[in-house]
Structures are given as structure tokens and as C-alpha cells.
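Please fill in the sequence for the structure shown.

STRUCTURE ENCODING:
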């Protein structure tokens, strides 16, 4: 480091504010220590020479071996490289090294520990936040290291009004520069602020400065600042200063002098271009070792950025995978919904008229619930119907594609049994021998089917499995469109009508078995068949039992027993929003189609001996039903539809109380027979 204690930067000038003790042209020197560790402000309008003044001071410091760091906001200081080995760091390819905030500590080490002059060129950063962050980190590192090293060092800030504005809005970078201005001197860190608009610079910084240079200013706001600090005569005289001429105010000699600064010796990259050809001089390069140290930081930063890019790419892939899984989950939900609809379609198939029976199809659709818009869209097989079936297409096609497994020996046996029994129940004239042969063939086929099924699937020991016939698209359409436009499911009348129609479609013996389940709560098909007036043959019992089960009026209760399910259907139809009294009222209204009025007045689990049978009737209709007054029947039916009185008679209930189709004793008259009780007890054992 040089032993020089002062640097010659200007000469005395003539005019207002001149030095009366010195002749014009006398040298003006600045003490090195005060320049390096002090606070300075250089101002003047564009072209007045303020950047030249800063360059002259910097050239003199570099000539004497004193390190500086220049924050270049316009890229005009690289001309110093014409004469000095100075590190040019920034964001342009013209810089010696491209730096980022990660280089801040290394830059501070080079400046303070290795005495490397540095131009920190922030003019090439496209993002202002990046430039501010870089400057903030560098100044922090300089301030922290100077507290330990106590080494004189000068920091030059171009366009300082951008960092420390007077009007507010100062960020962390500006606060750090103000901190250096107030406390940097005691650590050896000096600062020079340069601006063409003194009115826009924070006055807390200007008033802390040890020396100030006022070049030519013409704006009123700027000259007013000169008047407040130097005096009114200087405020008017500052407008007439020539290029490079300035008023110099210093604390160390408490004087104000009008001086003319020297011209800089290096290439003036900040000069306004003229008509002459622009020739850029050959610039000196810095040591490759210095650039290598910084380049290693850049390489490490690039490696980290590459890793981050890879991680982001991997994260994007995972996000895409998550989106795919979410789509698959949504598709699975759609398939689940389609499966539910398909199951309801199967239920609709089960509600079709019983094979060989005389009942009519149920009025309900494939569920008890609100009718969909597709259900009410049209009556034919037009586009509205097709929209209903659209979600079933694949499921129905899959069912039709597996046709070779749909028909089982058990189905054949039960079909043969049903055909024979249905003919007998309907009163048709059948050859006894032929009927006996059909029943024997059915029993033989059932035995073969049960033997075959036992090797591949578990079968309920008390009866055949709950099989379901194949469903075609026409069956699904028939079930989905069965409700007409006048019925809205979920209303009391619609629920009652739906369940009544299911019961009305049952054969007579099946309704008798349903009455048995109502009385017993839970029982087995054989006992129910005997109680309804049938025989003890299990094949016959399950044949009459199947329509009740498929209609959903009973449900499997375990160990070959089934439970009465009409109350549960009512609760499900109303989504469990009814209390028990309301449920009981709707159930009683439904039961009028198959339970005699005398039995309705008793609870469903009452002892049959306590239930009195209906009074015998003298005159019968040709169909075998009791004759009743037509007016009374109509009134009773209207009353039931209006208020659901559980004790009201329904004209359809009278026929259900008569003798069964086999000519045996009516289940309503006899209750549970002794034979049925004995058979049930034997089955339970």
C-alpha cells in the first residue's frame, strides 16, 4: 500500500465560491484516509461531470494501491480495465465472471483480503430483485468482515437514489447502505453516493456526509437543496458551473471551494456517443486464478440448479402420476356406480312376473327412490330411454357374453318344478301321471345340480342358492322405464303402490308364505309353505318361496331362515327419515293387500290362536271370492289412498283371506298349523 496520504484530484477555479486564499489553478488534494473511510456525496445533472469526478478519485486510489468496489448501474466503469487489473463481475458475457448472490462472500474476500478492485456491474440483470439481492449480500459481507479487519475500504454506489430514496419505499438494501453510512466509518468502510437528483436522495444520508461535490444543477428542487446546505448564493451559482466544475464542501477544513476536476485517464465508457467511430480499447484481464475461484462457485451453483431442475421434473412426474391415479379413482367410482345400477337392474329383473303365475308386473322401477329425469323423459324406446341404458351397456354385454355359465342345472330343475306347480296352482287340467313324472324329473335334476354345485361353491344347507336369471338390455329398459310420468317415487302413495304391486304379482301360495313370515318374523321356506297350505316337499317350498325373495319382501337371516322385510323396504324408501309410528302406518297400508282385516288389528308377531278368522260368506263370486257391496269397497279403497288408515279394508284383501289355490285351509283362518310348527322345530334341531 502506498505511503501517500493525499491524492491530487482537482485545481482551484475562478468565480463565485472560489477559494480566496488560493490562486486559480492551485492543486486541490483529498486526504486518502478521509476518502476511504468517510461518507461522500457527488451530484450533478447528466453531462455535468459527476461520473468523471468519481473515476478520477478511483484512479488516484488505484494508482496508490488502495482497493475499491464500484456498484455500476449503467455499465460505464469497465473502461478502468484499460489501465488497471480490476475484476469486472456482473450478468453480461462481457464481464470477467457472471455472479449471483451466492458469490457475495467470495467477492468480499477478494476485495478485503486480496486487495482486488471490483466492478460490480448490476446493469445486466433482467430482474431488479436479483440485482438488489446481490448488492445486499455483498454489502453485508463487507460490513461484517470490516468489523474484524478494520481495513480502510471504499464502496462507490452509482445512482444511489434508487436504493436510498427520499420519498420512502426503501427496501433492505437501502437500509443496509444507510447503516454503512452511519456506522461504517468506525470499522473502516467508507461509502460514496452518486446521483443526478439530490432532491430524490434521502436527506439522512446527505447530512451524514464528510465531503460533498455539487456539479451543475438546474432543476428548482435540486437547487433548493443546494441553498439549504451551502447557502443562497451557491444555489444560483450552481446553475452556471461548467463541465467538470463543482463546489467542494469538506468537513476536515470546513471550507467551500469552487474547483475544476481533472479528466479521467482511462477509457470513458459513459461518454455520449458522437459521430466519430467508436473504438473500444484493449482491456486488461484479471488473473485466471481469481476467475477460477469464482467459476468454481458458479459451477457449484449450476450443479445445484441442475439438481433442482431434475427434482422439479421428478416432482412434475409425480404430480402427473397423482393426477392419473385421481382419474383412475374417479373411473373406479364411476364403475362402482355402474355396478350399483346394474345390481338395481338385476333387482328389476327379479321383480318381473313370476314364471307360470298370474300376477301382473309391479308398477315400480328398479328401486324405491326419486324417479330420474330419464325415467320420465318418454314412454317409447327413443333417445331418452337410451340415455338411461347408457351406463349399463358394458355390464349387460359382459353378462350376455358369459352365457355359457348363466344356465345351471339348478335353474333347470327349479324351472321344471315351477312349471309343474304353476299348472297345478292355476287349476289347469294336468295328467296326474305327467305331473308326477315332471315332478320326479325336477327332483332328480335338482339333486344332480346340488351335488355338482357342492364341489365348487358353498350352498345353504337348508335350501338352494339365491340364483339370479340373466338380464338382457330389454329387461333393463323394461325395469328402468316401468314407472309412468304420474308417479313420483318417495311419496307415500308411490311407496305403498310399489310394494302392493310387488305383493299382488305373487302367486296365491307365495302370498300365504309371506303372511307366515309376517306372523313369525323369521322362519324357513318349508315351514312357511306348509303354513300357507302347501306340502312338506322342499322343492315345492323353494319354488313358491323364490318369488317372495326376489321381490325383496323377505331377506336372508342366516342358517336357512328368512325374515319379513316390508318394514325395512319402507324405511329405505324414506332414507330412515320416518319414525316407527309412521313406518308402521305405511306398512299396515301395504299389508291390506294380503293380510285379512282381523289379522291387521294385531301386531305382526301376535299368537295365531288370538287372531279370529273372517266370518264365512254365503254368496261367492264365480271366482271364489266373497261378494261385497261395490259402494263399500270403493269407499274403503278411497279412504285408504287418502289417509292410509291401517284398519281400513281393501277390496283386494278379501280375496287373500279365502282358500288357497290348492283347495286347502286358508292361512288367514288357521294361522300357523301344528304340522308347520313341528316341521320348523325339527329343522331347527
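FILLED IN BY: designer on duty
SEQUENCE:
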Amino acid at each position: 500500500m502506498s505511503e501517500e496520504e493525499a491524492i491530487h484530484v482537482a485545481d482551484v477555479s475562478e468565480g463565485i465560491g472560489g477559494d480566496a486564499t488560493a490562486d486559480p489553478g492551485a492543486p486541490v488534494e483529498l486526504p486518502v484516509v478521509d476518502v476511504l473511510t468517510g461518507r461522500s456525496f457527488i451530484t450533478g445533472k447528466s453531462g455535468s461531470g459527476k461520473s468523471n469526478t468519481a473515476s478520477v478519485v478511483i484512479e488516484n486510489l488505484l494508482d496508490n494501491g488502495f482497493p475499491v468496489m464500484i456498484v455500476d448501474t449503467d455499465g460505464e466503469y469497465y473502461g478502468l480495465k484499460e489501465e488497471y487489473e480490476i475484476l469486472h463481475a456482473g450478468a453480461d458475457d462481457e464481464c470477467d465472471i457472471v455472479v449471483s448472490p451466492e458469490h457475495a462472500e467470495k467477492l468480499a474476500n477478494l476485495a478485503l483480503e486480496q486487495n482486488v478492485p471490483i466492478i460490480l456491474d448490476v446493469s445486466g440483470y433482467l430482474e431488479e430483485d436479483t440485482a438488489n439481492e446481490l448488492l445486499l449480500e455483498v454489502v453485508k459481507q463487507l460490513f461484517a468482515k470490516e468489523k474484524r479487519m478494520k481495513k480502510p475500504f471504499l464502496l462507490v454506489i452509482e445512482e444511489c437514489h434508487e436504493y436510498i430514496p427520499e420519498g420512502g419505499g426503501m427496501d433492505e438494501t437501502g437500509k443496509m447502505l444507510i447503516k454503512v453510512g452511519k456506522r461504517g466509518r468506525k470499522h473502516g468502510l467508507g461509502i460514496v453516493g452518486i446521483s443526478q437528483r439530490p432532491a430524490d436522495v434521502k436527506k439522512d444520508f446527505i447530512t451524514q456526509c464528510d465531503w460533498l461535490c455539487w456539479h451543475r444543477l438546474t432543476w428548482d428542487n435540486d437547487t433548493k437543496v443546494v441553498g439549504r446546505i451551502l447557502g443562497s448564493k451557491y444555489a444560483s451559482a450552481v446553475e452556471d458551473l461548467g463541465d467538470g466544475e463543482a463546489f467542494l464542501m469538506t468537513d476536515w477544513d470546513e471550507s467551500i471551494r469552487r474547483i475544476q476536476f481533472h479528466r479521467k485517464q482511462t477509457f470513458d465508457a459513459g461518454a455520449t456517443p458522437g459521430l466519430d467511430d467508436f473504438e473500444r480499447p484493449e482491456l486488461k484481464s484479471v488473473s485466471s486464478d481469481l476467475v477460477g475461484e469464482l467459476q468454481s462457485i458458479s459451477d457449484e451453483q449450476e450443479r445445484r440448479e441442475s439438481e433442482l431442475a431434475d427434482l422439479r421434473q421428478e416432482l412434475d412426474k409425480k404430480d402427473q402420476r397423482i393426477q392419473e391415479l385421481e382419474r383412475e379413482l374417479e373411473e373406479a367410482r364411476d364403475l362402482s356406480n355402474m355396478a350399483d345400477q346394474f345390481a338395481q337392474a338385476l333387482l328389476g329383473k327379479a321383480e318381473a312376473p313370476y314364471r307360470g303365475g298370474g300376477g301382473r308386473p309391479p308398477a315400480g322401477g328398479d328401486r324405491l327412490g326419486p324417479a330420474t329425469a330419464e325415467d320420465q323423459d318418454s314412454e317409447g324406446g327413443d333417445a331418452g330411454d337410451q340415455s338411461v341404458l347408457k351406463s349399463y351397456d358394458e355390464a349387460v354385454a359382459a353378462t350376455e357374453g358369459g352365457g355359457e355359465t348363466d344356465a345351471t342345472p339348478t335353474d333347470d330343475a327349479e324351472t321344471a318344478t315351477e312349471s309343474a306347480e304353476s299348472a297345478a296352482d292355476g287349476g289347469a287340467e294336468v295328467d296326474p301321471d305327467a305331473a308326477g313324472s315332471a315332478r320326479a324329473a325336477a327332483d332328480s335334476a335338482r339333486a344332480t345340480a346340488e351335488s355338482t354345485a357342492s364341489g365348487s361353491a358353498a350352498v345353504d344347507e337348508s335350501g338352494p342358492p339365491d340364483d339370479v336369471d340373466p338380464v338382457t338390455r330389454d329387461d333393463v329398459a323394461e325395469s328402468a322405464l316401468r314407472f309412468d310420468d304420474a308417479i313420483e317415487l318417495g311419496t307415500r302413495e308411490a311407496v305403498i303402490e310399489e310394494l302392493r304391486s310387488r305383493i299382488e304379482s305373487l302367486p296365491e301360495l307365495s302370498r300365504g308364505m309371506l303372511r307366515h313370515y309376517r306372523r313369525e318374523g323369521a322362519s324357513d321356506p318349508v315351514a312357511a309353505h306348509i303354513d300357507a297350505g302347501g306340502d312338506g316337499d322342499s322343492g315345492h317350498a323353494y319354488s313358491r318361496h323364490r318369488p317372495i325373495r326376489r321381490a325383496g319382501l323377505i331377506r336372508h337371516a342366516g342358517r336357512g331362515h328368512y325374515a319379513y322385510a316390508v318394514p325395512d323396504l319402507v324405511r329405505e324408501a324414506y332414507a330412515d327419515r320416518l319414525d316407527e309410528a309412521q313406518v308402521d302406518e305405511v306398512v299396515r297400508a301395504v299389508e291390506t293387500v294380503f293380510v285379512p282385516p282381523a289379522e291387521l288389528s294385531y301386531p305382526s308377531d301376535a299368537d295365531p290362536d288370538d287372531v279370529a278368522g273372517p266370518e264365512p260368506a254365503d254368496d261367492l263370486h264365480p271366482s271364489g271370492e266373497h261378494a261385497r257391496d261395490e259402494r263399500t269397497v270403493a269407499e274403503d279403497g278411497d279412504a285408504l289412498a287418502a289417509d292410509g288408515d291401517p284398519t281400513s279394508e281393501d277390496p283386494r284383501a278379501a280375496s287373500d283371506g279365502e282358500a288357497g289355490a290348492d283347495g286347502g285351509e286358508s292361512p288367514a283362518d288357521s294361522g300357523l298349523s301344528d304340522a308347520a310348527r313341528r316341521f320348523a322345530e325339527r329343522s331347527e334341531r
